[in-house]
Amino acid sequence: MRTLQDYRLSRISMRPRMKVLALCLAVIVVAPGGETTAEAPGGWPGWRGANRDGKSAETGLLKSWPAGGPKRLWAVKGIGTGFSGVSAGGGLIYTTGHKHNTLWITAIDPAKGKIAWARGVTDAAHEEPAGSRATPTYDNGLLYLEAGTGVVGCYAAKNGRKKWTRKMSEFGGRADTWAYSESVLIVGKLAIVSPGGDNFMVALDKVTGKTVWTSGQFGWAHYSSPIHVVHEGVSMIVNGGRNGLIGVDAKTGKILWTQEFASGNVANCPTPAYSDGYVFWAVGYDQGAICLKLKASGRKVKATVAWENMDMVCHHGGYVILDGHVYGNHDDGWTCLDLKTGARKWYDRGVGKGSLCAADGMLYLFSEAEGKAALAAASPKGMKLVGTVSVKGKGPSWAHPVVTGGRLYLRYDDTLYCFDVTR
């Protein structure tokens, strides 16, 4: 296994700073286990799915694609520029985009491939790269969205009408270089966001928007989004920020533990992952990966470093944990690591740098270049592509792929594409 020092000495230049901006993809999520939230039909109510782990519960899907890719059902144009993925609930799917200096939410009927409604909800952030960051989170007929400007809002899922809004600045927060990119996390009755600054994390009543708790300081927010973890009876919220990783009590906001891995990095973007008592995080800009082992004693939690290495340097594309192995984006390709030891199983160029999700034992890869997607089996023995498809757009395709309801959704630029991936 390569050490951090060996790897860093081998690097002669940093990647362009604009690569960091892909963080913008970080978005809204739904609670994984413990306290529950209403799950949308199709099981993808927010950023990275029902458990915010990038894994779909779908089965009966294609194990390979025909030449030219799976059957395309429809493409909806005019959703606005941006990098938001999609969420599903109430019979519709939702995404966001920038149009005419305004942040829009668009709801699409997945059966017809037609826009059901679209509404401008707040000002667009002007930081480059231009485009929306977050994905709406669906919960009990409502949508929750954090704008790049720091406006957190709750909107009716049937028409986009505003229920309430708050501002990150109310809590002493401000956006870092590339605007707020986080997705609102729904845990039980709470809507959780990370202003950074005076209060790194805040919980709001999801119905009224009133403050329930604040966590105190842990530096500025970056571009990661929080996850809900229940470990040995302790319910906690875990997120990454400019100063590293943090875990807070989900009921009170009390800081339980911190880990200053990648502190001060240019941009910490990917969402942390949890499995079997371990918290995994890999970030870009030559920082690499860290894995923490959690241990609870009463209401106290200790997070000790199990390992760290440079075998997954992930700018924005994320990772999934399947059967004790982490599959994710590493530099300009893909890699598989053993969750508990960090041992690298393989590296493969695949479709190049990009994002992914998993469903029915398969990995769905989406390159940031030229809108190319691919299918591969999730195996620690290696990667073999068993189908590719391409979609059209301009600029980088940073939105993560989504598999729900037997369909694959790929968002590129101002167009959302839908494919049938059932057998």
Summary of the model, kept short:
With about 425 residues, this protein is mainly beta.
Which blocks of ≥5 consecutive residues have pLDDT under 50? 1-42
Percent helix: under 10%
Class per helix and strand makeup? mainly beta
Named at the architecture level, the CATH assignment is: 7 Propeller
Number of discrete domains: 1
Task: Please describe what this structure looks like.
The protein is 2% helix and 44% strand. With 423 residues, it is mainly beta. It has one domain (4-55, 82-351): YVTN repeat-like/Quinoprotein amine dehydrogenase (Methylamine Dehydrogenase, Chain H). The strands form eight sheets. The chain has a five-stranded mixed β-sheet, with no helix packed on it. It has a five-stranded mixed β-sheet with strand order 2-28-29-30-31, with no helix packed on it. The protein has a four-stranded antiparallel β-sheet with strand order 3-34-33-32, with no helix packed on it. A hairpin with a 2-residue loop joins strand 17 (234-241) and strand 18. The protein is globular. It starts with a helix and ends with a strand. Mean pLDDT is 91; it is low at 1-42.
List the helices and strands and how they pair.
Elements: H1 4-10, E1 29-30, E2 55-56, E3 71-77, E4 87-89, E5 92-99, E6 102-109, E7 114-123, E8 137-139, E9 142-146, E10 151-156, E11 162-167, E12 185-187, E13 190-193, E14 202-205, E15 211-214, E16 227-231, E17 234-241, E18 244-249, E19 255-259, E20 273-275, E21 278-283, E22 288-297, E23 300-309, E24 319-322, E25 325-330, E26 333-338, E27 344-348, E28 354-359, E29 362-367, E30 372-377, E31 385-390, E32 402-404, E33 407-412, E34 415-420
Parallel strand pairs: 1-12, 2-28
Antiparallel strand pairs: 3-34, 4-5, 5-6, 6-7, 8-9, 9-10, 10-11, 12-13, 13-14, 14-15, 16-17, 17-18, 18-19, 20-21, 21-22, 22-23, 24-25, 25-26, 26-27, 28-29, 29-30, 30-31, 32-33, 33-34
